[in-house]
């Protein structure tokens, strides 16, 4: 790889870890003023902007043809949404209203409730800790990952799984900086398989449910952004693996 390619690849490895943590925060707990300030920070807005620019420049090539137009629009919308949330971080009434939305959608079973974990979407019954959950647990153990939410969330909760991906992305970035390409390749392949087996298999259905239940629209737009990000990231991993060789 030439120097420019190395620089660009390193930047993207860092950027994806940042956004994976953002999605971990967004779907992991009721929002606070501090969270909205983080979402509206120049760093977060810039990350979504940079990701949307990938489409405008066709940086990911042919693998993006089927999703480029819609994903670019969704990610540009996420950039605008984050900026607007940051502007309202000091609005206590707005923060409380958003907390109510989160609770209604993801915490308290009821008419508007949406399951934020994998098992109900892939099993025959809406239940926790199916075979897929054991596989998630095994993958966490393989990389020595232990989230702070263990014991509070199901292990296949979307927030915990995004935290796991961010943990791996940080390790991949560190390995890339040290020139350990074999380790980068191993981690990227693990992430790719994990995303296909445990995220992209159910998050589109989760997104559709959020669209149906979220009358205010903030979490609907964030769910759109999450699915778009994961689809883009799958293409990035394919490109990165090809460049690393």
Automatic annotation (TrEMBL):
Amino-acid biosynthesis as UniProt keyword: no
The UniProt record lists the keyword Secreted: no
InterPro entries: DMSO/NO3_reduct_chaperone, TorD-like_sf, TorD/DmsD_chaperones
Gene3D superfamilies: TorD-like
Coiled coil region boundaries: none
Pfam families according to UniProt: Nitrate_red_del
Entry keywords, A to Z: Chaperone
Protein name: Molecular chaperone TorD family protein
């Amino acid at each position: 790889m030439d120097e420019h390619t190395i620089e660009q690849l390193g930047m993207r490895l860092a950027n994806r870890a940042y956004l994976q943590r953002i999605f971990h925060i967004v779907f992991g707990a009721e929002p606070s003023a501090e969270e909205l300030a983080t979402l509206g920070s120049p760093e977060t807005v810039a990350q979504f902007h940079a990701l949307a620019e990938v489409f405008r420049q066709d940086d990911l090539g042919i693998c993006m043809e089927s999703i480029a137009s819609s994903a670019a629009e969704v990610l540009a919308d996420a950039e605008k949404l984050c900026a607007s949330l940051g502007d309202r971080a000091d609005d206590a009434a707005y923060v409380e209203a958003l907390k109510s939305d989160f609770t209604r959608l993801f915490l308290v079973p009821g008419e508007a409730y949406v399951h934020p974990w994998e098992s109900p979407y892939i099993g025959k019954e809406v239940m926790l800790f199916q075979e897929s959950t054991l596989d998630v647990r095994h993958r966490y153990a393989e990389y020595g990952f232990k989230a702070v939410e263990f014991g509070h969330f199901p292990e296949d909760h979307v927030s915990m799984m995004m935290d796991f991906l961010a943990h791996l992305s940080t390790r991949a970035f560190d390995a890339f900086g040290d020139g350990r390409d074999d380790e980068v390749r191993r981690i990227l392949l693990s992430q790719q398989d994990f995303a296909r087996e445990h995220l992209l298999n159910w998050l589109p259905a989760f997104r559709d449910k959020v669209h149906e239940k979220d009358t205010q629209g903030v979490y609907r737009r964030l769910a759109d952004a999450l699915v778009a990000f994961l689809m883009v990231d799958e293409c990035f991993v394919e490109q990165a693996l090809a460049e690393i060789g």
